[in-house]
Amino acid sequence: MKKICVYVVFTVFVYSVNAQSAGKIITARQVKKIEKILSADDMQGRRTFTPAIEKASAFIETQFKKAGLQTFKGAANYRQEFFMSQAITGDLKISIDGKSVTDSLIIMFSYQPTISLTEKNDVEIVKINTGDKFAQKFYEYYQSRKNLLVLVDSSFENRLKGLRQMEKISANPAGNSVVFVFGTTEATTFRIDGTNTITKKALNNVVGILPGKSKPNEYVVFSAHYDHLGVGSPAEGVPHDNTDSIYNGANDDAAGTTAVILLAKYFKKLNNNERTLVFATFVAEELGGYGSQYFSKQLLPEKVMAMFNIEMIGTESKWGANSAYITGFEKSDMGVILQRNLKGSSFSFYPDPYPEQQLFYRSDNATLARLGVAAHTISTSKMDNEPNYHKASDEIGTLDMKNMAAIIKAIALSSVTIISGKDTPSRVDTTQLK
Question: Distance (Å, rounded) from C-alpha 191 to C-alpha 98?
Fold first, then answer.
């Protein structure tokens, strides 16, 4: 009984000390200072493969250096660089049953410099019909490793504008071609001739660490993505009005990146982490999570004890202030640990209220989660009614800095027993993932 009392007193003391430290470092003023830079118009929406993403990376690197982080695995700097192949389609001509198809109705995904295909080649004809779930069918075919001619019913032609803005990039390009033709439902004979310009493009995550004192080979990751959609234009199919075409991404996900920077400063100030803390901001999340996929390959999954991925925390959750939800709450006991560590505080973590949206698989936590890591995303975004999501109106003026600071503090305080090594979340059962 005496030991239990001592433990409780000690825990309360540690929580109190940590809360005081968090209150001095994680403030609404500091949140606004960082958020204002990341979501400013001169960041041009932080689109991947633009000078703006380089500018954002440089800012984050400077913040990690000021925080006193070490580089990941002794790297020369905080940039975790990798390369991707980008394809830009040049000439493309298609005829079906002897009739030419208008360029505006064709989208091709291929990483071959020259394409010449007919029905006599190994090309499979598939369809997306009226009544099909377009997104599901599209990604099934888009990710295929076969040569495909995809005939899409004309009822889906409204999807063309959005698809035309997709960057044609791949980390491991296959030798096949997938061609979508809209407005055509039958094909007996066909001919596809086209060219692509293929280039290697460098991208980089920004990663820093605080080595653990007694358990340096056990990792706890705090992450967010720092890219967004960039600048919209009618030609790209991105809507905008006459006054604003910059997709600032203040909430998505400058808010999460701001949290990672402040958490790095907070934990460096405490200087008491027993496990190694990894602070990562990912690139190319909006293009398919390529940054986090590359990052995940640099760590042995069994060495990663937990991942706090932070995505869109700038607005109040459906429960109001001082609350957030955890995606995949039921897939490990990490959420229970966080709730327990916040007991007695004014903040509450809840299970994801939008399970039908499959958010657990739609952010940068997904790759490590599929490898068994207790990797979860923390968010407040009302995904059934978030008015500024993926719009030019996602600007700093729509965010609640005070509430953001409260959420970041809650993440810091709720993680205390995990970073100290006292708690280890259960692993995600990969056999149950769907």
Answer: 9
The two tokens of residue 299 are 């760590």
Q: How many CB atoms lie within 10 A of CB 38?
A: 26
* Average pLDDT score over the chain: 91
What domains sit in the chain, N to C, each tagged with a CATH number? 22-84+202-432 (3.40.630.10), 85-199 (no CATH)
- Please provide residue 121's backbone torsions phi and psi, each rounded to the nearest 5 degrees: -80, 175
The CA distance from 375 to 334, in Å, is: 9
Query: What is the per-residue pLDDT across 155-184, written as a single tens digit (0 to 9) for each?
Result: 999 988 878 878 888 888 989 999 999 999
The CA–CA distances, whole Å, from 176 to 111, 144, 196, 417 equal 7, 8, 13, 49
* DSSP H or E run through 82: strand 79-96
In single-letter form, the type of residue at position 287 comes to: L
- Residue 6 pLDDT greater than 50, yes or no: no
- 8 Å CB contact between 152 and 181: yes
Distance CA 268, CA 87 (A): 42
The SS3 call for residue 166 is coil
The identity of residue 254, as a single letter, is A
Output the furthest CA–CA distance in the chain (Å, rounded).
Answer: 88
For residue 8, pLDDT over 50 is answered with: no
311 vs 256: CA distance, rounded Å: 5
Q: Which residues pair with 192 in a beta bridge?
A: 94, 117
Q: Tokens for 182?
A: 């809209």
Contact 294, 171 (CB under 8 A): yes
> Where do runs of H (alpha helix) occur along 203-254?
none
Query: Which residue in 121, 4, 27, 129 sits closest to 408, CA to CA?
Result: 27
